[in-house]
Amino acid sequence: MSKHYLVFDTPRDRFLHAVSRGRLGRSASRIEALAGIDMDVPRGSTVGIVGSNGAGKSTLLQIVCGTLQPDGGTVEVNGRISALLELGASFNPEFTGRENVRISSLLVGIDTVRQKQKFAEILAFADIGDFIDRPVKTYSSGMFARLAFAVAINVDPDILIIDEALAVGDEAFQRKCFARLDHLKSSGVTILFVSHSARAVQELCDHAVFLYKGECILSGHPKDVITQYQRLIYAAPADHAGVLDTIRRMGRGEAVPGERAVGAQTPGKAQKRAAEPPREYFDPGLISKSTEYYVSRGAVIEDVWIETRGGRKVNVIRGGEEYLFRYRVAFLQDASKVRFAMTIKSINGLGIGAQWTAPRGEGTGDVAAGSVATVTLPFLCRLNPGTYFCNAGLEGQVDGEPVIMHRIIDGLMFRIDKVGKTRTDYHTDLTCGSPDVTFMSGGKLEPQSRRTHRT
User: Fold this and answer.
1) Domains of the chain
2) Tens digits of per-residue pLDDT, 217-226?
3) Which of 29, 44, 270, 359 is the most buried (most CB within 10 A)?
4) What DSSP assignment string belongs to 188-217?
5) Can you tell me the distance from the alpha carbon of 102 to that of 104, in angstroms, rounded to the nearest whole number?
6) CA angle, residues 124, 126, 131, in degrees to nearest 5
């Protein structure tokens, strides 16, 4: 599949070219937006598309959606498409949110009967309250984006296309969006996802494609594709051609011996430590909006919270400190070999860490129906600033059968405020003590066996 555009020097040249079918007017420059793209996206897969600006990512998605026609080749689409190419593109600013939801649903083939069923889901997901009956021109940009996103993902698509549209709303709503995408993935929805966020592509996708100036130069596992994408964008100008050639060869399946990594620029000098950060506290507005409850199989988790070693409930905490993750469980049936767990996840739903009270196959002795347990799981916070979510759960044997007795997804939302600068952009900071780099006199490195490395 291919797509090109003609670029003219003046509007007059464009007009003459159009009316004369190319016989009049100055010649135009030809830009290849897509060149020989050949892709097969299996049903139920999630494919991330990465590339620099102008690589052809948005053009590819528009052709798949049908808003652009290719100049060569064909596109075969099986199923209903819901696209987030531009949030709210089909909204009329003079109409109310309710009216725009109705019109947008009709455009994707949802009949009036099913609209009534879907409207409650859309309204609950967007969470804009009485504004649903006001003209959307009165909405804030965040409210507009929330409603548009809610419509796009709640119309039962077979194929969902997302072009850099996940960073909408506050952090709680973003987590809600990613939780919904996880649900769509598990339901077999095919997702095409364009993003400049390497982390989002790796966390959300099971396959990735690297576009460069309209060509697909590499496809494969997201981690491998992202690694090569970052090698190219961080390559020094003198190394760019060589790195690009290496990636092209890898894309053709050729063996590339002696591959040389190209790194990013060295960061500047570390800044002095900032002033003492604020202590941990409880923010009543920090409430998870993506909480889900598993069906009870003999137990119910009644509450989830974090507290300090001194016993204060908190949800804004500090890196490097110890805290207690706690929850209460009421047992409805007799059970045995019960073990309890907690999981910490990112806004995108990536599992960052977990803790169990016992190894698999082990746990408590017999627990009688009517018992109430308070679970305490101490943890050392090594997380970088950001917003995170906690799951709580327990499993055990009920009537001799091993079952997940209960689980709460995103039962708790907590935050780590940014104070000063961090050493890494990843979720966790593994620094222990003071890092050290030793330079040798004269700029010459000593033999490997004599080099000094201290952490």
Assistant:
1) 44-251 (3.40.50.300), 292-416 (2.70.50.60)
2) 999 988 888 8
3) 44
4) T-EEEEE-S-HHHHHHH-SEEEEEETTEEE
5) 6
6) 95
